[in-house]
Amino acid sequence: MECSSFHTLILCLLLLININTTAHSQSIINTLPGFHGTLPFKLETGYIGVGENDEVQLFYYFIQSENDPERDPLILWLTGGPGCSGFSGLVYEIGPLAFDLEAFDGSFPSFTLNPYSWTKIANIIFIDSPVGTGFSYATTPQAYNSNDTKSAEHNYSFLRKWLLNHPEFVKNRLYVAGDSYGGKITPMVALEIVKGNDAGFEPRMLLQGYIVGNSITNFSKDQNERVPYAHKMALIPDEYFEVASSSCHGEYVNPDPQNMQCLSALQLIKECLSRIYDAHILEPKCISRSGQLILEDDPVDLLSSSKQEQPLCRNYNYVTSYVWANDETVQEALHIRKGTITEWKRCNRSLSYEHDVESVFQHHRLLNEKGFQALVYSGDHDMAIPYLSTLKWICDLNLTLDKDWRPWNVDGQVAGYTMKYKNNEAQLTFATVKGAGHTAPEYKPKQCLAMVNRWLSSYPLYIDISMSELIIPTTFECLAMINDKTFLNDCSA
């Protein structure tokens, strides 16, 4: 571009400034509306441009570890959906802030501190991905089109650029983590990192493994396990299940349309489950006091209702995020670029998004073969993605069972059950979280922090140890503690 006059020169300079700003921006946030005083942790927000000409601008929240940022691992967190904001994972699952739901009356919400935040042990990047999620946006209409493959590539490009702008974290152990649909994209991003490292791209990332919770692997197969799960949890009678099992031949999602016996059995099962809350089978499904069933995950229409009309269900909790994130002072505090979005949504269900990858089973297999560690957990009361479907694909990996099914405890109480598999250097740890739904940290934050802390510290989950006691032991200390040589491989030499 040539600048032939003073005025043109000014325009050129403004254009260059705009390009630079669009490519990358970051801000340190010391205070937030709704939180009294200075934040007791380091929060950074910003945008990073990815894709052709940086047409996709991905927004993020980065929170430094409250323990030892220089040595603690770095986690890239992918929330589900697709289309659910990283802010949802931050305030409803694993971040240091949580809304004071008891005090919320429909006016501006306030925050409390989450004592079980994963930032107690790790640096975490919460990303609004794919494009169109949260505060992320595109500079052209075409750039809003996305899919699984593009989302994984964009997340990898984001992470590369983020690390180039934060070189102090390049040396930290890196993990990719996600739940629900984010758990589907997680192994895809991990493989993108592996490919980038193999190709010699800078910076070289110290990927150690990945974490997936209540995660989609193959949606059709995941949904197929809902019927066996409902039977195990006494939601349908033996008779219904036996007829469905024998007549449907194990195919409950896409049955033969000519098989009337199967279809009749599935209809009876559907009627039994119609008022069960998939995300947690023991919690009430979202029904207003007028008796109307609320089907949306995010009941935005409830913002205008009075407190007396509020439905008695978990979904109402998500209203707080709409009130907070759409407030002008909040967006100014977060340094949101004006005019880039019309309305913030916790989960954007109107994305231009193609599910182009049917299954990520092979992604899990490849990561295991390459020696990466994996933590796979499921809330045992989640019927949206039943733990049975997760166990099924893990079994199909044909790994060597290292530690069979056994309880893991927190404060002396059973927090769930765990198994561990190995394949040479790679280890895959599976855990259920007792009493948790979809997704587990939202329901059992204390137990999930203990679980991930033990795993990141190379402790077996079934050793009940507190946060203050948790240090990586020597082999001698491990043997003295548990007096069982079969556990030697679970300890760090």
Keywords:
single chain; 493 residues; alpha/beta; Rossmann fold; twelve-stranded mixed β-sheet; two-stranded antiparallel sheet; 15 helices; 16 strands; 19% strand; globular; disordered N terminus; disordered C terminus
Structure notes:
By secondary structure, this protein is an alpha/beta fold. It has two domains: 26-218 and 357-490, Rossmann fold (3-Layer(aba) Sandwich), CATH 3.40.50.1820; 220-326, no CATH class. The chain has 15 helices and 16 strands. Strands 1, 2, 3, 4, 7, 8, 10, 11, 13, 14, 15 and 16 form a twelve-stranded mixed β-sheet that branches. Strand 14 and strand 15 form a beta hairpin. Helix 3 crosses helix 4, helix 4 (181-198) packs across helix 11 (361-369) and helix 7 (238-248) packs antiparallel against helix 8. The protein is globular. It starts with 5 loop residues before the first helix and ends in an 11-residue tail after the last helix. Mean pLDDT is 88; it is low at 1-21, 289-296, 304-310 and 471-493.
